[in-house]
């Protein structure tokens, strides 16, 4: 476990797990949303492929994402381990809603100095809407990738519930 992807749907806890595993294994942690969203107005990094390619050239890293479509294959080809948070909507949606309410109320700065807003809740791009609408497709994509012969060498651990993740993390 030197080059790790932590995957799952929006709200699964990818960043939290990646941070914790990174600390335990002394791996450099990179948050995909922070790499992708680099400025106000949700501006994106035009050099994302170059940035991610450079980060994953290194021998040791952990990234919390299935990967933005532009870098998805690159990440999966360079990883040696996939940790899949495969939780149901009953787990995901309360987490997303709590996080978004907290971020909206506290005006917490996230990714490139952006903030979640009350008006943003009406957008299909809002994390709550995104988590709900992308849930099934994202799970299918991860499932497909874990069965893809190109990625057969990856050590994949699938966590069906937060309790199993917590137990695994305690053993790391």
Automatic annotation (TrEMBL):
The keyword Protein biosynthesis does not apply. GO terms for molecular function: ATP binding; ATP hydrolysis activity; kinase activity. InterPro entries: ATPase_AAA_core (IPR003959), Cytidylate_Kinase-2 (IPR052922), P-loop_NTPase (IPR027417). It holds the Pfam family AAA. It comes from the Bacteria. It comes from Streptomyces apricus. Keywords: Kinase, Transferase. Residues 4-46 form the ATPase AAA-type core domain. This is Adenylate kinase. Transmembrane segments: none annotated. The keyword Thylakoid does not apply.
